[in-house]
Design brief:
Elements: H1 3-22, E1 41-47, H2 54-62, E2 69-75, H3 82-88, E3 92-95, H4 105-114, E4 120-124, E5 128-130, H5 135-145, E6 151-155, E7 157-158, H6 169-177, E8 198-202, H7 203-209, H8 221-231, E9 236-240, E10 245-247, H9 254-267, H10 274-300, H11 303-327, H12 339-359, E11 361-364, E12 367-370
Parallel strand pairs: 1-2, 1-4, 2-3, 6-9, 7-10
Antiparallel strand pairs: 4-8, 5-10, 6-8, 11-12
Length: 371
Amino acid sequence: MPASVGINLLIGLLALLVGFMMFRSLPVLARTSGPARFPLLSIVIPARNEAGRIAPLLRSLQEQHYRSFEVLVVDDQSTDETAEIARRFGATVLRNDAVQSGSGKSAACWHGAQNAKGQWLLFLDADTALADADSLTKLLGSYRQRGARGILSLQPYHTVHRFYENLSAIFNVIVIVGMNVFTIWKSRFNTAGSFGPCILCNKDDYFLSGGHHKILGAVLDDLALGQAFLDKNLPVQCMGGGGVIDFRMYPEGLKTLVEGWCKSFAVGSKSTHPIVMSMIVLWITGGFMSAAALISSIAAREPVALTLSAFLYAAYAGQTLQFARRCGNFNKGLFLIYPILFIFFAALHLYSLFRAHVLHSVKWKGRKIEV
């Protein structure tokens, strides 16, 4: 067996084992018992040009069995019919006219929170939707069981409709793993923050932390808000949203997908614990090494090397599929050629580093954001 093939096999096997330690599990909310009586809930939805995406969320809110809530859609300088659509679903529309530095999602959320009547606040991204009619009951019941303190945040389950959307698979895995709390050590590392699309907290803790007003300049508001709560010794709990909340990321096209992930990864890796980051790097490297071992063994025509490398490649494909399907309904067949997903992730990550450290800016929804 050529030495290069043996080295690739060893690194690939080590990375495969590290992968299981890196992403041990993704807990989701269980159904809670007891009566569905909770404090008045204010649902705050920041929305900028979301006319094509916000209707499923508003419809899912209308279908909830639990009804003691208000819906505040904060129109963040939209130029489409976002506000009109929100009103059709009975939501209260607040206009966020801030033009100063810091306007955007955080300013919109802060504006919504200031106008909220509820004792509990639920911040939802406009591209999310509740999975069924009991989702709110399950979410609020889980928060109450955890003492109704700090933040309970969920990463929605990613629903894929068009083929190019599968390119988000590895990004979804890394975003979740990068929160530090889904390894075999669970709570050994502090969470990197909170998941942004679905954040539930009580109003007293929110204003005590400074809320979104404290993080008005942050590119990744979700991580920054979670840290603001942690700075006040308030708990931040992160879980998977499977069975409770879904979302569809970047349905507008590949360009939007690139801009969105570029924004997220330009600064997001700074919050991941070095040990977790090392495991992520090794796991991604192993993905390339397992593919390289298979290609090298085919070229060398060595039966033993070919058998071992084929086994490793298949194991890596299976593990990558397992991790991705925890995050969304990604195409199973695509993982037979999973190195393409790793190559796209690596290329876009390098591009995000270029934008962050050379251009010092990223683009999102028509805005240039300094980083």
